């Protein structure tokens, strides 16, 4: 198209007729912005069929815009003015609605708890209606248009979103794009032989193609769900990347795109602010590859983004892609072709690096890998976290390890052994997850407090170790709160909750030890959160204070710039945060059982002046005017500013 061509008159007329002059013109202007991206992205996947598909999906977007409730349109307006609205100083929180509060209505009764922590972003784990029995923590959805009846109804969800919005809290909900439960009506129709719905999934008459694909497919759950295909009673095979009851959708079928777009737009209109797109890397499959991060997966996400921008510009898409840093950045739209994609993605690398530094008392690997990263594009950002509902995969990059003289494979083995508690001198009480019988690789399950040594210290009644563990928990959060991105607190971590000793009591959970770290919220323990003589009180107070300090300066906003500073002490992680509206903040985190010294020349590199003041510091040391060389107590941190 030539520059200066007038906006598409047909779309404009239709939009003005449906939405009125103001909103219709705005819709047409947005269409003008996204139409090439939309067409090109769809053409990459659907070829010539993309032309007609664009017409149909733009109509769906217009329908969704017309159905959008007024309070949500108000949010859209405000967020179009400030598209980085979610990248401010807010703190995030993740929980399972049922394990946190029984039901969605129950969640609404605990908003004060969240407000105390400064939460402005609430991620509720999968809440759409799952299959009965084993359902992978809700990631096997039977009906995308219904809430799990045990949690409540769609009306309850809308009501909760409304009360959250009144408090300025954005609601994030999961949408599983890659697969449905085999009990979903599409899958049932496919099983019954309906050709339209058979084309929603990937069936194979025999093992020929599955074998060919499996030559290059890694296994996600090698222990509890080996292989990527499942044989049906009819003898044929269906693609199941995860469990046998999770059938992968065939996104090369435009009907799948339209159906899932409908699901996404309806969720947005129920008042969801952020949609977590589960297993995003898996949407495109190509023979001879690992079937992750393929160009089709990106094109599909770009098309979904173009359409949500069109219909509901206030909606944020978050990619759940637990992949290496080089594969990750494209999910935020940093491609050669620069088409906008998701606005948020998980910073898995930071999490792994923190646990690595904690076990080794050495930040060299963290500083090496975190310093060579490309910043997130403007208007996008990370979610940072100490723990989440999944296991920790020991993703240590070969070249980063090599750069500091570590053997990557033995370091990965060390970390898995350390956190499973198999290593002499380990304070951790985690468990191995998915030991791969072929490669021997192991991942780790466990709550933050148990991995950081609080569980072992309390059991041993070792006061000094309890203190050290509490400091380690605070230290880990200090980095997650200050590194850039929305810091996500994982339910229970705010009170130092330990592993669920009875995680395998429910037969549907028994072969998945990720339930070790998916406990019921211990509200009895949480009642002590204001009592500084308890572990609960100490962790909670630490997180409240971190949230407050974070919110006190634009330099700690999620989208402020981050720079890792290399300095003389390999036990202290140093990074600077910078924002044009505020003084820079230098964050120092001491990963050592011994006090550490930091030389004054780090101040020059950081640009915080020769006599910085303390913005916030660890409970281990509340000195207001530090002397140089700076002495940092064991497992402590300090945030310095001009
Ligand atoms: C996600 O994780 C969820 O977080 C898991 O809880 C689900 O079991 C899974 O999807 C299936 O729905 O492989 O080990 O790059 O790492 O999608 C967890 C993304 C997983 C994958 C991720 C997946």
Helices, strands, pairings?
Layout: H1 9-19, H2 21-46, H3 50-67, H4 70-81, E1 91-95, H5 97-101, H6 104-108, H7 111-116, E2 119-124, E3 128-130, E4 141-147, H8 154-166, E5 170-176, E6 179-181, H9 185-191, H10 195-198, E7 203-204, H11 208-214, E8 229-231, E9 237-239, E10 246-248, H12 254-269, E11 274-278, H13 295-311, E12 316-319, H14 325-328, E13 344-346, H15 348-360, H16 364-371, E14 381-385, H17 398-403, H18 408-419, E15 431-433, E16 443-445, H19 448-451, H20 454-460, H21 463-482, E17 486-490, H22 523-526, H23 535-551, E18 561-564, E19 572-579, E20 582-590, E21 596-598, H24 601-606, E22 613-617, E23 630-632, E24 637-641
Parallel strand pairs: 1-2, 1-17, 2-5, 5-11, 11-12, 12-13, 13-14, 14-17
Antiparallel strand pairs: 3-4, 6-10, 7-9, 8-9, 15-16, 18-19, 19-20, 20-24, 21-23, 22-24
Helix pairs in contact: 1-2, 1-3, 2-3, 2-13, 3-12, 3-13, 12-13, 15-16, 15-21, 20-21, 21-23
Bound molecules: 3-O-alpha-D-glucopyranosyl-D-fructose.
Organism: Nocardioides marmoribigeumensis
Enzyme class: transferase
Keywords: Glycosyltransferase, Transferase
Using brief descriptors, characterize the structure shown:
eight-stranded parallel barrel; EC 2.4.1.4; amylosucrase activity; globular; binds 3-O-alpha-D-glucopyranosyl-D-fructose; 642 residues; alpha/beta; Oligo-1,6-glucosidase, domain 2; glycosyltransferase; Immunoglobulin-like; Glyco_hydro_b; transferase
